[in-house]
Amino acid sequence: MRSLFLIFFFCYVTGKAQDRAYVVSEKDSIPLSNVYICLKDRRVIAISDEKGVFSLEKYDSLSLNDTLYFSHINYLHKKLSYGDLIKNRCTVFLKENNRVLEEVSIFSNRHLNRFLHYEILSPLKRGVYSFASVLVDGQIYIVGGSTSCGPFQSNIRSTLFWEKYSNMMYRYDIKQDKWETIRHKFRERAYHTAGYYDGKIFILGGKRLSETRIVDYLDNAIEIYDIKRDTVWTDYTNPHQATLLGSVVYKDNMIVLGGVKKVLQNNEGVYSDEMHLWNLKSGYWYELGKMPIRQAPETILVDHCIYLIGNRNGGGWSIECYNLLTGAWANAGRLLYRLGWPSLAYHNDIIYIFEQGVVQTFNIKSRQVRSYMIDLKLKSPALYYFDGKLYILGGFYMGDPSRNVYSVDLKEFDKTEVDYYYNNVR
């Protein structure tokens, strides 16, 4: 009977540990908020609230030997086994870190915002997501995309709602905060890409719907829009047909990478590892080799390197780099949050990575990653840097496409708490 009681008591204590635990300062036992609790793989599984409380109830598979990592920008990091957490009566003590972190000055009288502040700008004509876009001379062009409402579908059509893709192109003048509709009608497509070169916008990839909107097809057409002449023409030579493909324009070439080639009956995507180079002067296509893994990443060009972030094929943690001069691949770092639908922008050695309420920053020189909270729970918007600000356009939120446009002044990052940071080891 006594043994049964002890077993019951131990299970009860374990259960209560999963329900509620505390993080406090070792110096004065003050509750610590915004402490990140991670597993060994750097996956964030909990964050302490203003009372220092965190819960692990969603992780009932934790064993007593599993190691938990506790981190806060003002305190020394600590690791503790799940069993020791229970032995310590579900309380974790962190020791204050008095040293000044690199590039970070902490002042006791300085108030930092919990979330990045943003401004609301003139909205889109209608809500849209998974469109293609480019930034040209202070103007953002967006074309196509999904205007469907309902469950967010990444690769194939949904049988739960009527899908609709846009055939419109809109132009947003950043300085005037004004939208304009381009007079031409484009192909109805979504999950495609676009690039700008020599006064023209090149639109390719993605998928289109049948007339009944029951079947979808990869779109083999390339549309070319001449901005100055306001003309559109179509080319049907595209060896890289896929949805969710990455692309960059480098010198006279457009480079396209990966994507989803088709979707199986079990809703699993067949991902591509192909890379193609399209010479925009001659019109010729060339095979550029294979990626190390099949993936559908977001891509951004920095100097002569293509950074691939947010692989949708079961990844989402790594930052990869492809050197266009040497043809070499390298792992550039690891993110703090796993990503599926990130939006990317670049300025002054920093890649800004936005998805669902979090902006991560990756310094390409120091390889440090930081995260900041922002009260915008969007998937698949466009993200651009221009004249000291980030611009967030469209996207998907709570079952509906968004027509909202926001800007974030880069100065706000210095006024906002760093939620978490990580130095990637070289």
UniProtKB/TrEMBL annotation:
Keywords: Kelch repeat, Repeat. InterPro entries: CarboxyPept-like_regulatory, Kelch-typ_b-propeller, Kelch_1. Signal peptide: none annotated. Transmembrane segments: none annotated. Pfam families: Kelch_1. This is Kelch motif family protein.
